[in-house]
Amino acid sequence: MFQFDTWLSVLLVLATAALLLMLWRWWRRKRSMVKLERDPSGMWRYHRESMFQKKLAYRHQLGGDPRDEEVETIAVIHFTGDIRARQHRTLGALVDEIAVNADALDEVVVILNSPGGMVPPYGHAYSQMERIRALGVKLTVCVDVVAASGGYLMTAPAHKIIAAPLSIVGSIGVMAFVPNFRELLLEHKITPRTFTAGKFKRTVSLTDEASEEEIARFQEQLEEIHKQFSAAVKKYRPDVDIERVATGEHWTAEESLEKELGLVDDLGTSEQYLLERNRFADLVFISQRRNFFDDGFGKMIGRISDEVEARVYGRLTAGQHGLPY
User: Fold this and answer.
1) Is 303 among the domain residues?
2) Closest Cα to residue 270, out of 51, 41, 74?
3) Residues 87, 211 within the same domain
4) Active site residues
């Protein structure tokens, strides 16, 4: 009898937990279907995960002067990139908030630090930066550490690029590293085989021998991406000598100014620029809530794994761009 009662209690607890889980999911879905709401900062919120923090212009506070009626408003967002540009979706959501509030903004400042990485996600991030520029709002990018390769591609649509003197910029090039393990597999009596339909469905791979024609096609694809990369920089920075800078080289921001490469417009840190602008303008920092448990335990483990990979990649690319470990 005691055993039956125990199992009955367990079943009741599990049933109650399942019911509570269903109610919680229903509540989450209901919350996700909301209209625009006004944030205390005065901004309209489009995504419920978005957060706004407002810093009022401080000149009148220090001097005791009355607050100006017409005070500029500057939106500030951050982008820290890794090899997969994992924040490109988050960047898109932040740009949504900027688009919804564009009429109330006088400038957007993007604090960007990235050594570059995979082409598709960085291409998407670049498109988000183009969206900001297309809104007709002044776009300023601040680089404190590095904006290289795909990271520099993201800076291209900016009206003004400000970089710390020893930050790394440039690296307008395309690279593909494809080790081949075929001989190693054959030594262990494993014969890799790949079946394809389409002449160039697979060109250079990890396990198959590539013909000269396939290698040429692979190189042609890299050259095409490089051509598009160079064109994007030239589009928004027409005074740049693209043949001179699109060599894959990188420079410090100070060096690029001394050599008149046209990759940056001014030297300075993001803190310096924002403090100066905040003297006469209100700053609105836009970000997204990050809750490791928000999407379940599996997502939490995935995010931890992504964080570890990002740190490892950061150390590897630091040496590539001459940055200290």
Assistant:
1) yes
2) 74
3) no
4) 149, 201
